[in-house]
Input
Amino acid sequence: MKNTSKNLADLFSEQHPRSYKKGQIIIRPDDTSNGIFYLEKGHVKSYSLTEQGEQKNHIIYKTGDIFPLIRSFIPTNRSVFFETIDNSTLKMMEKEYFFTTIKADAQILFEITKKIIEIMKTHIERLDGLEYTKANSRIIDYLLFLADHFGKRKGKKILIEVPITHKDIADSTAISRETVSREIEELKRKKLIGDKNKYILIKNIKKLERELKLQSDPKRL
Amino acid sequence: MKNTSKNLADLFSEQHPRSYKKGQIIIRPDDTSNGIFYLEKGHVKSYSLTEQGEQKNHIIYKTGDIFPLIRSFIPTNRSVFFETIDNSTLKMMEKEYFFTTIKADAQILFEITKKIIEIMKTHIERLDGLEYTKANSRIIDYLLFLADHFGKRKGKKILIEVPITHKDIADSTAISRETVSREIEELKRKKLIGDKNKYILIKNIKKLERELKLQSDPKRL
DNA sequence: CGATAGATTGATCACCTTCAACTGCCGTGG
DNA sequence: CCACGGCAGTTGAAGGTGATCAATCTATCG
Output
């Protein structure tokens, strides 16, 4: 047993990696198993469903993140799904072992707390972005959010390296897919964004940020 | 120095209480001071502002909560305000002392982590509620959210014991104040909610939950 | 290669914002 | 203590934004 973990990767180093294909559900609301997952490679989205079966996307987890946090730490009504959107590699640890280990070591526990805070920050940014009342503002804000979290600089441009569909954007911003399609088209027409091998490319982030401010301004030309 | 803290109240027990009047801003984005606040009595709302100065409400903190979490744990762009909506009592601890103390004691650190998870859960519920596309669904979901977090059972009814205005609901759900006014009126007409000394009273929570499911159903009569 | 899911485009119309005018309420200062 | 100012709430009318429906097209995957 290794008690010298200094970070999350160390903590999970002894666990064997598990491969998941794109689109596999890792955790469902009714799951009785209670492992803690560490995402080594790929991306996982969390979401709930409406009565009509529409997805309401929460966030996208990436390398170094852990989940599920809420149901692991406190007893709660489970309503959230975790599903890969990539071919992904995860590691899993039994809840009991996880808690025994972290409760015994303030240092690793502090690292986990910082990771939790980081994931909470992501949720707050999403919450904040959803409070724009105009559809195009919510879309632009979400693109800026994705650029910040998954963007890789390519010169002056930013490539959003996460497989995201218009449907995902729609399910993340409370907008219909058709409207997302039209707004994205408009942003491409304005040369603010583009495509690059299946990923969204931000061509001019400064202008895109300016566009967000203009969109919410009722007094724009 | 007291090292026997078993919970948050203990941890802050040595700090002297500070009184704030309703409407006072405790933390602004540009604040350089970096204390951690423990809310002993009252309510504090967190929010950001749009370019046009509109409030985007995040959550309402209550007795036993601590803030600000994000800016205390990780370096970040500050854009969030914390403001009392009640006459409130808080305790404050210097950031350095706070971190020295919790890093030295896994037990109190674990208590704080659980509190953080609880506050994260609140944010996720808000995020999820904002993903309803219809205004009346978002309002009903928000009322159910308030009932769950601040409601006191009065027989079969639930009194939401937090001073909340229609403007607050509007700023929390990305809806105009006028529409909130009309929808609340409609819910009163249906006898689902009412008033009781300035607070919102949920008269029939089961029916209100059913109303939420109906609202989002396009095939309703 | 067929099936399924996502994307596109156009037309229609409902929902909700906006604007405006008015009322009510509360805290503050003279 | 009253008057005032400002913010919150109410109500009505009008117009725009974005949802919905439908038809077609494309991409992906077994």
Remarks:
- The radius of gyration of chain B is 19 Å.
- Chain B touches chain A through 48 residues (CB under 8 Å).
- Residues 106-130 of chain B form the longest helix (25 residues).
